Structures
1.
Amino acid sequence: MHVIGLQNSKKTLLASPGNRLALGKNGEWKQVLAESSMEALPLPKLVEVLQQLQDQNKRHIAVVDNTSDDGVASFYPKFIQAGFSIATPNKKAFSGSLEHYSAILHTALQPETIQKGPLVYQESTVGAGLPIISTLDDLVITGDRIKKIEGVLSGTMSYIFNEFSPPQGSTRKFSEIVTVAREKGYTEPNPGDDLSGSDVARKLTILSRLIPDLANALPEGFKSVDTQSLTPAGLLDEKDADTYVKRLPEFDAEFDEMRAKAQANNSVLRYVGLIDVEKKVIRAGLQSYPVDHAFATSLGGSDNIISFSTERYSPRPLLVQGAGAGAEVTAMGVVADLTRIAQRRF
Amino acid sequence: MHVIGLQNSKKTLLASPGNRLALGKNGEWKQVLAESSMEALPLPKLVEVLQQLQDQNKRHIAVVDNTSDDGVASFYPKFIQAGFSIATPNKKAFSGSLEHYSAILHTALQPETIQKGPLVYQESTVGAGLPIISTLDDLVITGDRIKKIEGVLSGTMSYIFNEFSPPQGSTRKFSEIVTVAREKGYTEPNPGDDLSGSDVARKLTILSRLIPDLANALPEGFKSVDTQSLTPAGLLDEKDADTYVKRLPEFDAEFDEMRAKAQANNSVLRYVGLIDVEKKVIRAGLQSYPVDHAFATSLGGSDNIISFSTERYSPRPLLVQGAGAGAEVTAMGVVADLTRIAQRRF
């Protein structure tokens, strides 16, 4: 594998035909890119230039989209049409409208595209480097029938509820835990973006589209997922992050009440994603689990956990657990995807 | 993918050039094979015939070894030399002597072999269809450093100790649980074959050879693993399975004592495999775990669980759990391997 191009929102670096980019030692690439004399290319121009390199080098090209940008995601059909593979942790393309998702599939399935052999891998969109997408793919491709997928899919939500509602119970305030999580950098700059549940809804969209029975279930993508926002009604219009956090204690009583109810039932609260294939339910929201359930006992830190119940894996499910966010484990998923592309196309 | 040949210890079926085998509907293949007029071919002859088919069909051939036979395993270098890929749940080739294992690698790495493109996949040798080998491969290939692998790797041992030493404690006798397990078909015909720990030692051998720092650690393969046999000293010479089981109650007191010691420490007993890379320890044996440890709380039935502690996945490990034995989940791993071969070579 050679790196032949790098682009961020400001600058571009391109290798000359037949060569790889000179990026210096570990980590120096950032500066090399910043000092490039070439302004960032508009995406149509970038595709054109990469196609020329492909024609000259006679080697397969893979695009790694490490942004979380809608604009780049909307360009996937063009990349694929040009014959480029894609490896990405960007959830936008696969969790948006069914129309855009179908356009990607449709492009990939055109005979003249298939001939160029582009592949699309997205392991890190759910659970970062954890083997989640690949496991679901293997279950489906080998003829298993998925019955239910259930999991703690957001590292931020995991941390918040592991602290707020541990198996042994707690009296800590919800607002205090969110504030600490924000200070530690576990949340988005505005914690409301995590508490909305849309990150979990996006991951559920990606997973459900890999299940044949649900491939067309969510016309508007993550917006079609039944999602419980944890932002209190009184804060829904609060756009300023600092004010949002400052006012959160006003609503602690609501969260205390939910926790007390769970504790009275010897249960904990977890914010989970649920896909029930038979009932065609796809939902993101708070759920209570008995204190001896894996989601209560086994989780810690900002771990993700996901449980696949299938015709083969039942009554006991297949479980995958571990860190589901962070630069290193996300990069692992992307590089493993790139390796799979290299094994199949170079 | 086409099936072009089937062979068991008695009979062989071969397709004519350009055709696939006619195997009837689901499940009928067994009878079709049994009624074949062709006696099972000696392996050298089989390779020769398959090579002719490969030359005529101009298509890549994969051998699926669904035996647990040493003789077939010892033939892998010949398959690979002929350019055939291998997908197998058979542990014998990869857990035997380092010499044989190295011969397989050496053959695969000869320039004239590489050109033919054979691939070797063995997901189902550890944990059946659970993503264990592929996860370890991805960790290593993306540059992570494995620190420790620890797991309940035998479905039989899992069942026995989940029953004998649950988190809430138990007074059931070891011999009684083994007897029930045998009646349910969870053990080998002679439970002594499970209690010897050699199945776990074989799996540890396979895993450790995928870790660069330990690639050459076990010259005699599974025999070099530090393995604790659970067969009581007084039964080591008992070869008759029925007598073995009948005499097991004589030794219940030994097991009661170990359990009492664990329970006094608020712990459970589990038969685990352990690979400590830094200390270069590779061991199969009984270990006690606190009652709130995942190996105590989360396991049930005959589940396998495996925990990868790495530079990236620490202090909290990456965990994979689920059914680790049985025809369906084993077949899943083999078919997923075949799919990967098909994606890369057909």
Note: The mean pLDDT of chain B is 95.
2.
Amino acid sequence: MLRDRLHRGANRAHQRPFTGASPTCHRLSGQKRHGWLAMSAASDTATVTTLKAAGEGRTVAGKITEPTGKTDKGMIDTQPPRGTRDFFPEDMRLRNWLFGEFAAVSTAFGFEQFDAPVLESEELFVRKAGEEITDQLYNFEDKGQRRVALRPELTPSLARLVLQRGKTLPLPAKWFAIGQCWRYERMTRGRRREHYQWNMDIVGVSGVEAEAELLAAVVMLFERVGLSSRDVGIKVSSRKVLQSVMSQFGVPPESFAKVCVIVDKLDKIGRVKVESELADLGVAPSTIDGVLSAMSLTSLEQLADLLGPNSEAVQDLTRLFQLAEGYGYKEWLVFDPSVVRGLAYYTGVVFEGFDREGKLRAICGGGRYDRLLGAFGGDNAPMAGFGFGDAVIVELLKESGKLPAPPHRVDDVVVPLDASLRPAASGIASRLRRGGRSVDLVLEAKKMKWAFKHAEKLNASRLVLVGASEWERGNVVVKDLAKFEQMEVPADSLV
Amino acid sequence: MLRDRLHRGANRAHQRPFTGASPTCHRLSGQKRHGWLAMSAASDTATVTTLKAAGEGRTVAGKITEPTGKTDKGMIDTQPPRGTRDFFPEDMRLRNWLFGEFAAVSTAFGFEQFDAPVLESEELFVRKAGEEITDQLYNFEDKGQRRVALRPELTPSLARLVLQRGKTLPLPAKWFAIGQCWRYERMTRGRRREHYQWNMDIVGVSGVEAEAELLAAVVMLFERVGLSSRDVGIKVSSRKVLQSVMSQFGVPPESFAKVCVIVDKLDKIGRVKVESELADLGVAPSTIDGVLSAMSLTSLEQLADLLGPNSEAVQDLTRLFQLAEGYGYKEWLVFDPSVVRGLAYYTGVVFEGFDREGKLRAICGGGRYDRLLGAFGGDNAPMAGFGFGDAVIVELLKESGKLPAPPHRVDDVVVPLDASLRPAASGIASRLRRGGRSVDLVLEAKKMKWAFKHAEKLNASRLVLVGASEWERGNVVVKDLAKFEQMEVPADSLV
């Protein structure tokens, strides 16, 4: 039986609890495997077995049956590759809803959409700062011996496009993108290897007005999906805090990106491990103490005391909070100097969205990166932006019961009551569709009872029956499924 | 200078004529490189040089400057990987327009959207019928020694999802997808390595009503983008024609898929080469003659004469044309038995969209594939569908001057007239955005002249000026850019 055979390959996977990256994920173990939140199922064992079978199929060509690569060992693995997701229609409706919200916010802010290939030259992502994102690059050599990578993030592609346009690009440019990003890591924790990310970036604005505008967009997204500042907040700081402290202690600027990447792991690996990694980098103990105590400040006043009121960090952040008040989202922001973000390229304000209960990873993150173009060999331009993934926000909405479940629906279901009436029913479906209606045309011989249940399942508002006697009069029967009314109408008046 | 440095890497590419796959492409050589129709530019030489530099960067780590992988040899390659495209905002607006049409037609037909990973297990695509699509598989081994491939088409993933759902999938299922597909070929002709494809598939309907419905959707798409049956048509046949002829000549059914793949190349490689490939496969000369003469029939009457009126091919196609008449798209169809399609898995009706002038490749193609699930080791289910790429349709629309150029536009441009008014302007932008308007907020100190030009460039309908004296009264100045009118209004009444 189909189901039995289906389970042969992925059996072990079904018995494994869902092991997402969030601490709350174990609660979701009972959900449907194919859901938005679900991991690629196949356990190591299952995947290896299946791929071994496929491998044999390739080498022993005689065993391959036409026209596909299925071997004589049974069914192909019906699960997507480890760490990736399928989007069944119910998942896709949710994805379309979320991406629609991303796009609506971007449009409200006057941003233009761009995209770049999911496969880029590896060189675009090679950085040596020890970031998780570049350590886990999904890279390989193509058949032309070129080093390529599935993009781990969208910002380097944006920078490449900006450099490609060069001086012909009108500034400021306000661009957004929604794209799939990939990583490869060998850990067996069951983290996903792909996610979608929404990015908004502003090129050419050097003031914190850019960051304030980006934060306003993040807040608008939160509001649109039903979250309030009691549910989520955005931690804000500036890399200039760390930079000032480091320069006070005489740390050379070359170490800056690496120090940031290490300090970013404070929450994850703890103070002791961060101290030891900073020491390995050659940072002096007194500097480490200074850096980490600056990370524990809780107000801009304390920061001004530490760095002086003329410090750029203090001025930027003070201005940012003023603007936030103007926009009306000040209550969403929290000054937190321990936020430095794990990407090497940030140079100024950095921020990350968080759930107030503190159960999940960062919801989104971003900041200013004024020297990325220069690092690629171009002329620098002020740039700021954020990345907002599709995973944590959905977990959060699910946790709080705010995740919508958009239904599939059509306007009309058209049913020919016998085979000879199919051409007539086709014409009626055509007419309705041209008029802007969504029409499910029943393509097989089905009983009336089936048609009613089918129309109900599709949340149809009408059932249009094409029967022989009415059709002789040029008419069809229209059943209004909300009003439980039915009437015979001329087919050529149907709208 | 930025532009000069930009051109250093891709210089040779700019001098090469655009070499798309269509015979008309040389006409487009003067267009912008980054356009929808444009190829990835970098010539072999340019690409290899750049990647060599990146490779050295990886091995000689000391040469890498923080925080990116840029070497000391200059700018990174700003072109996307060979054979891939960037989507600048103007390209993205066109793509969104086309994908929007794909989705609108699918919705009009009551289809539900799905998606699957762009990266699938290689086994899903391994077939031995000599198809171009599987010969050019963009496959590689991941770091876990798994054979994976960037999907060359969407149908095998659909089949995998259908098998994964098994008997719990309500039939008929009517699904669509819009996804990127990849191929890898070493030829230097400059063909693209990726394109997007729109698929619509019906699972569980065995009659040609399914094919007729799919053809209706293709026709609706053509109509929506402004094409008529004088511009394009759809060639229709059935694999059962070839099958009947082959069985009349006693050819074993195992060769069927391979014969189809060879015969499909008739237009491309010519009769002599097809005859020789069929002979290589062991097909007898008399059979070859029989097959090829059947391919030159021009009417269903001739087909009935050859195969007999009870032949399934004749009955299917007769029924299909009756349904086409019912739908009202009969004039778009052309019976052409030389259409067999180049995919191994088709089993019944096959069709392909073509431009009446015959200048381009097939616009779309599809048909029935009732045995694909079985080939994957599952229970067969009747399936029919089509793939419709994003390349040829755009070429055709461009050729015929019907390609739209959707502009970027916002509703309002909000301009604070001095820095102290930025928080106020931010609040006004917020208010307008919450009210559903698309608002570009000017984030830098700009002159009024710039603001007017900027608003014009963004096709804004209003310019909202936040000036000190009006703001003291709680007012802003609104300029209606269509009516050339201006008035001072209370900020809190602004909508």
Note: The first strand of chain B starts at residue 112 and ends at 113.
3.
Amino acid sequence: MLDINEIQKISMDCSMTEFVGTTVLDTIGLVIPGVNDALLQQMQIDKPYKSLGLLSSRTGAAGQINAADEAVKSTNTEIISIELPRDTKGWGGHGNFIIIGGYSVSDVRRAVEIALEYTEKYAGELYISEAGHLEFTYSASASQALNMAFDAPIGKPFGFFCGSPAAIGLVMADLALKSSPVEIIKYMTPNRGTSHSNEIIAAVTGDASAVKNAVLTAREVGLQLLISMGSYPEVPGTPYL
Amino acid sequence: MLDINEIQKISMDCSMTEFVGTTVLDTIGLVIPGVNDALLQQMQIDKPYKSLGLLSSRTGAAGQINAADEAVKSTNTEIISIELPRDTKGWGGHGNFIIIGGYSVSDVRRAVEIALEYTEKYAGELYISEAGHLEFTYSASASQALNMAFDAPIGKPFGFFCGSPAAIGLVMADLALKSSPVEIIKYMTPNRGTSHSNEIIAAVTGDASAVKNAVLTAREVGLQLLISMGSYPEVPGTPYL
Amino acid sequence: MLDINEIQKISMDCSMTEFVGTTVLDTIGLVIPGVNDALLQQMQIDKPYKSLGLLSSRTGAAGQINAADEAVKSTNTEIISIELPRDTKGWGGHGNFIIIGGYSVSDVRRAVEIALEYTEKYAGELYISEAGHLEFTYSASASQALNMAFDAPIGKPFGFFCGSPAAIGLVMADLALKSSPVEIIKYMTPNRGTSHSNEIIAAVTGDASAVKNAVLTAREVGLQLLISMGSYPEVPGTPYL
């Protein structure tokens, strides 16, 4: 039987070869060099990779998906799957669980490292108050992760905005679309596309400046409405937009 | 880039035309005067309204649905959709996201105002302890919102009771049905009808006194069982039943 | 109307005949001696029982399912249903809601008593940190509950391991399967088999020593990875493996 005192002796400085790193939003990055065959079969992956990179957070979705997008853009890897658990540690949104595949361990390890770095950056557009939260992300050129999660056209500008409680997200979407000539490519609600999160999510594409403007409008609207609920949001990073 | 200090300068006293108000249970009421066409198409609303009223909370479902029911009863508006995100800010239940449609902004604004007022009243029958929660609602005459969410016969008395952890809700339902000649019209569980909440939900109809009696029995049972778990519930409002 | 001061007068020492007991993880055990006919019909139980035993928790799934397994093994009762709400009081996992059926109240009451006792024991293999959680369970001989929930072969050794955030659970599964000649019988992810929890869950069968070894490997791996996220887990019981 495990002596409970032994737990405290385990180092926070993990030395396992599978460990890549951790970052904000309770995010961990891991690699599986050559996944067990029986497990691989259960996972129902329809791609030939045996080296897997994993990015997994309790809080945040779009930021980490955008971070994974950067990772696959600059390494010889591919997104295998993106899942959005209903999480956020008691808030109304998602966490994320992203699997990246590659032919070599060093490729997927590098991809996970990049994803962790960008997760820290992109966490700058997450705003969490006592009442709810807002999330934004922007990419000048969407790649495979944003395409898989939000139907983003590959190589095109991509904007994402989301608000919770859900009604805030809908007004953000309405005013963002009215402010800018963008095309809405994804619309998600508690019952549609989400894991029953308390969010309205919208994703847009179009010219870079129009997409960016739509995201900035959504942010301005979202902050006003979220703050009207009686508390100021904290930001787990530094706003980058 | 957003200067994080600018966030603190945003007033809690929201001046946006879309803003109607906020109330207990992290509830916000908003209006969209004339929804953007591309957004409207994504929303897949099969009704002709372009003025939308929104009621959205982190916590509570039956109370706000009953409040929306009062709103559509006394205004020229209609319920468009009711969604129940898995929320309650870390507890085992739902939040809500309700869209009300109308032909004029003033109609939907008035509906949202009424829904906010009744949300405060109906929050009086929500009981939240460290261990779980109970929710009750009663209507002498159900209208469109209660019908859409719980199959309530229009114009008839309606009672609702729910307990979490789920087992408490089942014993509440059993004893309420044994105590009173009511008809059970809705039964929801973690896997059936809910967004995987930790609740058993039952809704009943029948004669006014029988329905009320069933709700009161459910409340008496629920409070005893919830308190047996080791903590007393708080009430975000004032009990009205 | 309910006087709110009356609530404080309700005893925590519940005297209702339906009450069996409470234990760790916000778990309550209840019985319904002869369930109301209209309610029974709504419940869509396809078994002939009218005496129901209920085990229901805010936190934990495998431990309580294993506890219910022990209960049906040693009483004349049967599992009717197992549901896993998305709960854990703000963490990334499940609660549980288990219904046990029997022909007599004393049978189901005894079953619930046993399930409560084993819930306390099996809670010893739940580890909850600020960042996430791990859950393990082991049975030398699986019975009906473990079979229903995880396809465990009846009468065979059964092992279960789960980690959150999800990526931790996947590395646990990979290394457990590599460490021991066991067969994987269940694989669950945020989108597959769970209620959108932030977990990877794996269940295995095989020789007793191999199954136990797989669980111990998973625990060793899981603790290292969970602790790498920056906080030490607490255990709501005493580790028994």
Note: Chain C is about 35% helix and 25% strand.
